[in-house]
Amino acid sequence: MEKWSLMTITVLLALTVRWAVSLGSYSGAGKPPLYGDYEAQRHWQEVTYNLPVRQWYFNTSDNNLMYWGLDYPPLTAYHSFVCAYIAKFINPDWIALHTSRGYESQPHKLFMRTTVFVADLLIYIPAVILYCFSLKETSTKKKASIWGGVALCILLYPGLILIDHGHFQYPLSLGLALWGVLCLSYDWDLLGSAAFCLALNYKQMELYHSLPFFCYLLGKCFKKGLKGKGLVLLAKLAGTVVASFAVCWLPFCTDVEQIMQVLRRLFPIDRGLFEACMFSSPPPCSPSNVWCSLSVLIKIKNIISPQTQLKLSFAVTFLSLLPTCIKLTVHPSLRAFKYALVSCALSFFLFSFQVHEKSILLVSVPVCLIINEIPFMATWFLLVSTFSMLPLLLKDGLVLPYAVTTLAFLSICLASFTIFEKTSAEDLQLKPFSLALKGYISWFKSFPKIVRSLFLLSITLMGVLSLLSAAVQPPQRFPDLFPVAVSLISCLHFLLFLVYFNVVILWDSKNSRSQKKMS
User: Fold this and answer.
1) pLDDT tens digits along 61-77
2) Which of 28, 44, 101, 263 is the most exposed place for a label (fewest CB within 10 A)?
3) Which of 2-16, 123-137, 340-354 is the least confident region?
């Protein structure tokens, strides 16, 4: 009874914060001709309701792909169609072909915001609550405290709230991926595979999480033996994946050209390494990944062809993923799987092709799942991830919600986990690594103090830069000074976090023990 009361209060608080943020501005409000992501979602409803399926992804006189053409997988299109069907009953003008372009009104804003609330309530929030219930603690009292603290931190993570309920985005792909993680934690491998396939068919960016899912399940098959139960499980998993994709893509399987056109829309590789930055923040692009940060010093797109850029980003991304994927395949465990979700997604964000600043959420949600294990580092990362989207949030007029939700989140983490007391090598999951370095690095004993000092320095730097970005005009000679500074500082943080997470994964002896129990 106590846990349900605690979770009810947590959910009500989370919904209240979401409602408060949704009262503010949204992406592209009153900014023709393209407006923003809010208009993109509305336009997809217009297209999917008024045009036959075969025209959804094709450029026609009724579907100008240069004006927010559909560039997400079929499940996004189906979701848009369902929303459009409801909108038609309320006010047909909202989705009228051609004439509804750029439509803005308070009733329509209420409708669109409500669709995000419904997606949160039906998919994302239940997955978070059930995940928290799945966490294991020996003490019942401590278990309730862990449930409440983790749920509160995940549901009040400011980055996701500001993007979903401020900027405007649906949490469905992340919610479905979270359902996949939840199912795997209960050994419901087929359901977990199906849930992740649905996530991938909602947004192609879920490829960030695809390798951990693949390697973990493949590793389980290897451990069960590919001549017995392992082979049966592998066949079932393959059948589940094929069936899930077949159901999602069935309307587009009428001919090969339909499938190829959808794929071209999902992966527009000819546009180059930086295409995803074009409609985000002022140039240079604000995603805090390596390529955008390097472009400040080296104009990569001017000296390397798009095809070479693609090969380079693929090679670097693959090499950065390889150690984690090998470790997870050889020693599959749920713990290693969750850390691999973080590491692999962060590698994709830092090194892959056409990254948007919002893609950092694909790293942040897996970090939320391990906040009870490494509260100090997880809190630090989640604060940096929110800060990295500052240029986008400023553009959308979300400065006040950004400041309030970030400070509230930090306060909750401090109260729930007393993070400054969790900075020892053991608390940071670095004990095996520290033992390996014993005798080589003399300052490791003062490591907790160093980490706390770096955290305070980092928070101060982000706070000062946030204030400057919001209140001070940059010099005329350097109009993009603050967005570039945010990008560079965030990228440096993320590179260090990538090293940290890889060290935890590769030196983690707990994974081997979990693997032995599994086999």
Assistant:
1) 999 999 999 999 999 99
2) 263
3) 2-16
What is the separation, in whole angstroms, between the first and last Cα of the chain? 36
- Residue 2's CB: how many other CB atoms inside 10 A? 12
Which among 459, 355, 470 is positioned nearest to 402, based on CA atoms? 470
Q: Among all chains, which residue has been given the structure tokens 């977990």?
A: 192
Using the structure block, give the residue that is written with the tokens 């000092």: 453
With b for 16 or more beta-carbon neighbours within 10 A and e for fewer, the 414-439 pattern comes to: eebbebeebbebebbbbbbbbeeeee
Q: Exposed e or buried b for every residue in 352-364, given b needs 16+ CB within 10 A?
A: bbbbbbbbbbbbb
Quote the pTM value. 0.93
Radius of gyration of the chain (CA): 23
Q: Inter-axis angle of helices 447-471 and 399-417, to 10 degrees? A: 160
Give CA 394 to chain center in angstroms: 20
* Residue 495 clears pLDDT 90, i.e. is over it: yes
Residue 321 near residue 211, CB atoms below 8 Å = yes
Q: Cα separation of 266 and 247, whole Å?
A: 18
Which tokens belong to 178? Answer: 């979270």
- pLDDT classification of 279: cutoffs 50, 70, 90: very low
Which amino acid belongs to residue 354?
Q
Which residues have C-beta within 8 Å of that of residue 359, sequence separation ≥ 6?
205, 208, 287, 348, 349
3-state secondary structure of 60: strand
